[in-house]
Structures are given as structure tokens and as C-alpha cells.
Write a structure and sequence with these properties.
The chain is of the alpha/beta class. Among the domains are: about 5-160, Rossmann fold (3-Layer(aba) Sandwich); about 355-450, ANL, C-terminal domain (GMP Synthetase, Chain A, domain 3). About 25% of the residues lie in helices and about 30% in strands. It is built from 12 helices and 26 strands. The protein has helices at about 5-15, 30-50, 65-75, 90-100, 125-130, 155-160, 180-190, 205-215, 225-235, 255-265, 365-375, 410-420; strands spanning about 20-25, 30, 55-60, 80-85, 105, 115, 135-140, 150-155, 170-175, 195-200, 220, 245-250, 270-275, 275, 280-285, 295-300, 300-305, 310-315, 320, 335-345, 345-355, 360, 365, 380-390, 395-405, 430-435. The strands form 7 sheets. A 7-stranded mixed beta sheet has the order 6-5-3-4-7-8-19, sandwiched between helices. A 4-stranded mixed beta sheet has the order 2-1-10-9, sandwiched between helices. Strand 20 and strand 21 (about 345-355) form a beta hairpin. Helix 2 (about 30-50) crosses helix 3 and helix 9 crosses helix 10. The longest helix has 17 residues, at about 30-50. About 45% of the residues are buried. This is Long-chain fatty acid--CoA ligase. It comes from Paenibacillus albicereus. Pfam families: AMP-binding (PF00501), AMP-binding_C (PF13193). GO terms for molecular function: acid-thiol ligase activity. Keywords: Ligase.
Length: about 450
């Protein structure tokens, strides 16, 4: 079968890097020649198992030479690929049903991946229409931990077009997960530019720092929650992290306190904010300056506008649509990101998701503004702020906190109120405060808010 032109470009590009180191996982290191050999091996297995172009195939696992080779082979075979990480394995049946998966390839850490056939009578709706176009596809899921996740369908060939423009060749850590839009972006951005991806077995702060030191990693894509955890632990002082040239952060709003601490801890590294959504992909973004919370989103094929304080984006590489939800684009192709922003001279500052804004007596409170102040307190290790219903005000500000040392709740509440006075308006100061023992972030290192907080 004739390959798609974009896939031909990608394979030829990778072949040009044949002798370069493509990937490191544990004690194993492979070159680009090895990666392409894995792709060819998987192409053979795909034929052996009778996997036809257009079939929907889930890839369950994490970054590995074999999993990456399988993804390339499925791309070449024009399959619709559904990457799934171990963090969602407990929901695999539900996700497979939503994505209309025909086959699953499971990497469970053993030497061989298992290929399974699922009972499927055919495809329906948007997916059926897309498959008839004979293009490779990509299905990702929204990351909400409650409710039914939405399945996002991308034209994978169009998705890859953004990597044709040459960028820096860097040794990059794949911190974001295999089924995360940022993780997919990291992998293909690195491969397209002949860089090396270093895949962690563990995403704890000590494990990440050890990998940076050992493999002289230059680019660390992370989340604000992980950076806060790293800086709070102080473990970065125990390792040589001088190889880091760039630290990118996204997936959630960065508190100023964490950003300032990161700037002090890594003075030689550029701190770059990224912006992306699973529905739109990772978009070109330029920070006003290293470590600035202001950024400009744009580039070829990208348009932005602000409507009632909310960012809207129109992109030529946006998703084709949801498989299990209504089309979110308006008649002109604009997507409402639900991110409230400020604008200044073409740059924007993201304040937070509209769904997370707390309405206190008609006045808006952005959780990250309150968290930023709480994180400046020596008593507070981490904080997650949310709104709770109130019959008089509509909502009140509630905060869950991890403390550095044991404190009585009444004492902590008094200290928080005292510290926040003069830094926050009275209506922004938390009324309800809970001390939490567990983490305030998900396994994707993203802050947990609302009813998702453990113990509620």
C-alpha cells in the first residue's frame, strides 16, 4: 500500500539520522537505524496479524524502542492509533469502547508485546467518515478524572506537518505521558530533529534528577506541579543539573511563587511556557522573556482572539472532532479554550479555566492567584484552591494544603488569614482550610481541584 506523503517524509528524515542516538530507556540505548529496524519488524507483525489500514489500534504502554517502532509502523499502515498509558489501564475497556478499537497492542514490560483482537462490528459516525479518507489517525482522551472522557480524533498526517520546520537538536526527557498531547509532541519533535529522548522508568523528583545528571539532558518538559514538588524537596541540589538548557512548562497555570523559585534554582536554563490543548495540539508560543508568565501564541495557520476575556483559537491542525460529544467549533472554525486571559500588546497571560473560577458575591477569584500567595508561606508545602457553594455569596474560597510540619487546623487557619491580609482582597482569602496528607496533584502532575480532591 502506498504510504502517505507525510509518513514518507518522516521515515526519510529518520533514516538521515541513522547513526545518531535516538532513545535511551533504562540500560538500553538505540540509534535511529535501530528505531527504523523496530518499525520494519512491527510492519511484519502487522501483516502477520492481518491488521488492515483504517483499523483502530490501541497502544498500551510507555515510551520504549518497541512501542515507538510500533507507532511508526501503524502510522505507515494508515491506522488510527490510540495510545494508552498505564495510568488509565483500569479504564481500558471503557476507552476501547469509546474509541471503537479493533485491535490492542499491549506492552507490559516483557520482551514481547501482546496483540489482541477485540469484537467490533464496524465503525460509526465521525470515525467511519475519517477512515474512508485513508489517512492515519490519532485518538487522545480528555484528562478529566471524573465523568466520561471525551475522545479526540486528529488527522495524524496533518498533526505531523508542524515538525517539518527544523528546530534545535536536543537531549530530551519524556516526562509527559505516552498518551498526553505534550508527550506525543515531545517524541515527534525530538525525532524529527535528530535528538535523543530519554524515557524514565519513574517520574519521581529523585529519578528525574538522576536521569538528567547521568544522560546530560538538555530539555525538560514538565508541569508547574512537578516543578513545585522538585523545588520543595530540594533534591535538585543533590545532582548536577547543569546540562539543562531549557525547561518548558504547561498543562496548567504556573504560580508566580513557583516560577520565581525555578528561575533562582536554574539560572542558566531558559524557562519557556508552552500552550496546547488535546483538541488543538501544542501551539507555537513565545514568552515575553525567560521566566515571564506572558506569552504570544501564533505561527502559520494559527489565529487567536479574545471574546469576553476568554481565549479563542482557530487552527488548521485542530482535531477533526470528538467521537462521543458534539462539535465544539463555531461555524467559522473557532474553538473556545475556556481559558480566561489578560492581554497586553499582543501577549496574553492565562488566569485559569473558566470552570475553575470562583464567584464570590459576583467577584471573580482565580485559584492560582490564591495558591501563589499560599505557596509563599513557610508552613505550606502545596496548596489546591477551589470554590464551595455558599447560600449567601454563591461560593466561598476553600483551600486544601500540605504542610511542612504538623499544625493544628485552627492555628494554620489563623496563620493563613494573617499572611494573606494585604496580599489578597478579603473575598479572596480562604474561608475553609483543610490539611491534607496525600498529594494535591494527579499522576500526570496536574493540580487536583473541585470534587476530585482525595478524601472528599
Amino acid at each position: 500500500m502506498r504510504r502517505h506523503a507525510t509518513m514518507e517524509w518522516l521515515l526519510q528524515t529518520l533514516a538521515g539520522y541513522a547513526d545518531r542516538q535516538a532513545m535511551v530507556r533504562g540500560e538500553r540505548s538505540i540509534t535511529y537505524a535501530d528505531l527504523l529496524a523496530s518499525c520494519r519488524s512491527w510492519s511484519g507483525r502487522i501483516r502477520e496479524h492481518g491488521i488492515q489500514p483504517g483499523e483502530v489500534v490501541s497502544l498500551e504502554g510507555d515510551y520504549s524502542p518497541s512501542a515507538c517502532g510500533a507507532m511508526l509502523a501503524l502510522l505507515a499502515n494508515r491506522n488510527v492509533i490510540v495510545p494508552l498509558s498505564a495510568s488509565v489501564r483500569h479504564r481500558r475497556d471503557e476507552l476501547a469502547e469509546i474509541a471503537q478499537v479493533d485491535r490492542s497492542i499491549v506492552f507490559d514490560g516483557g520482551p514481547e508485546a501482546a496483540v489482541r483482537t477485540l469484537a467490533r462490528s464496524g465503525h460509526a459516525g465521525l470515525l467511519d467518515t475519517f477512515i474512508k479518507e485513508e489517512k492515519p489517525g490519532l485518538v487522545l482522551f480528555t484528562s478529566g478524572t471524573t465523568g466520561r472522557p471525551k475522545a479526540i480524533l486528529h488527522d495524524f498526517a496533518a498533526f505531523l506537518e508542524r515538525y517539518k520546520a527544523p528546530r534545535d537538536t536536543l537531549r530530551t526527557l519524556t516526562f509527559l505521558l505516552f498518551d498526553h498531547i505534550g508527550g506525543i509532541n515531545t517524541m515527534f519533535h525530538t525525532f524529527a530533529n535528530g535528538g535523543t529522548i530519554i524515557a524514565p522508568d519513574s517520574r519521581t523528583a529523585p529519578a528525574i534528577c538522576a536521569l538528567i545528571e547521568r544522560h546530560r539532558i538538555e530539555l525538560l518538559p514538565a508541569s508547574p506541579s512537578f516543578l513545585n514538588l522538585l523545588l520543595l524537596s530540594g533534591v535538585h541540589r543533590d545532582y548536577d543539573l547543569s546540562s539543562l538548557r531549557i525547561i518548558t512548562y504547561g498543562t496548567e497555570v504556573m504560580p508566580d511563587a513557583t516560577l520565581n523559585a525555578a528561575r533562582l534554582a536554574f539560572p542558566e536554563a531558559q524557562l519557556r511556557q508552552t500552550y496546547g490543548l488535546s483538541e488543538l495540539g501544542i501551539l507555537r508560543a513565545k514568552s515575553r522573556a525567560s521566566g515571564s508568565p506572558w506569552l504570544r501564541i501564533g505561527g502559520e495557520g494559527i489565529e487567536t482572539r479574545i471574546v469576553d476575556g476568554v481565549l479563542h483559537i482557530r487552527s488548521g491542525t485542530a482535531m477533526r472532532g470528538y467521537l462521543n460529544a458534539p462539535n465544539p467549533f463555531d461555524e467559522e472554525g473557532w474553538f473556545d479554550t475556556q481559558d480566561e486571559v489578560l492581554e497586553d500588546g499582543g501577549y496574553i497571560r492565562i488566569l485559569g479555566r473558566r470552570s475553575e473560577v470562583i464567584n464570590v458575591g459576583g467577584r471573580k477569584v482565580y485559584p492560582v492567584e490564591v495558591e501563589d500567595v499560599l505557596l509563599q508561606m513557610p508552613e505550606v508545602a502545596d496548596a489546591a484552591v477551589r470554590g464551595e457553594p455558599n447560600p449567601l455569596l454563591g461560593s466561598i474560597v476553600a483551600a486544601a494544603v500540605n504542610v511542612q510540619e504538623p499544625l493544628e487546623p485552627s492555628e494554620l487557619k489563623a496563620r493563613i488569614r494573617s499572611f494573606c491580609r494585604g496580599k489578597l482582597e478579603e473575598y479572596q482569602i480562604p474561608v475553609k482550610i483543610e490539611i491534607r496528607q496525600g498529594e494535591l496533584y494527579t499522576d500526570r502532575y496536574k493540580k487536583i481541584r473541585k470534587e476530585q480532591l482525595p478524601g472528599r
